[in-house]
Amino acid sequence: MQFQYEQGVSHDSYTAIVDEETFKGKAVFADSRSGYGFDSNFNSAVFSTTSGKIVATLFGDKNSTMRCNMTYADSSGFTSVGGVGVCQHSDGRIIDVMW
């Protein structure tokens, strides 16, 4: 399996090649939250939090799919820091991913 990613602002893009089938899809934070609040000095602030858990669905050019659950090493979402994950192919195969 070959696996590539492209870091994005609102999502990352994944490309994988498995058995001569090319899969492409978007990866998003599974649990990101943002809101509006006040700091200790009552100044308004916008906040965003996430655990670094990422979900993705990739669609193959031969009609297969893969669902991936990733955990980035950096919870702020910087893909280049590394991470681990697992993808399940629509035929049932489980593929471990690490970068």
Strand content: over 45%
Describe the largest sheet: 7 strands, antiparallel
**Helix vs. strand class:** mainly beta
H/E series: EEEEEEEEE
Radius of gyration: 16 Å
For the secondary structure, the number of strands is 9
Strand order across the largest sheet? 1-2-3-6-7-8-9
What count of helical segments does DSSP give?
Answer: 0
Task: Name a few traits of the molecule.
99 residues; mainly beta; seven-stranded antiparallel β-sheet; two-stranded antiparallel sheet; 0% helix; 62% strand
What does the model show?
By secondary structure, this protein is mostly beta strands. The protein has one domain. It has no helices and nine strands. The strands form two sheets. The chain has a seven-stranded antiparallel beta sheet with strand order 1-2-3-6-7-8-9, with no helix packed on it. The chain has a two-stranded antiparallel ribbon with strand order 4-5. Strand 1 and strand 2 (12-18) form a beta hairpin. 20% of the residues are buried. The model has no long low-confidence stretch (mean pLDDT 83).
In brief:
By secondary structure, this protein is mostly beta strands. The chain has one domain (2-32, 47-98).
Task: Give the secondary structure arrangement, pairings included.
Elements: E1 2-6, E2 12-18, E3 21-29, E4 33-38, E5 44-49, E6 53-60, E7 65-72, E8 83-89, E9 94-98
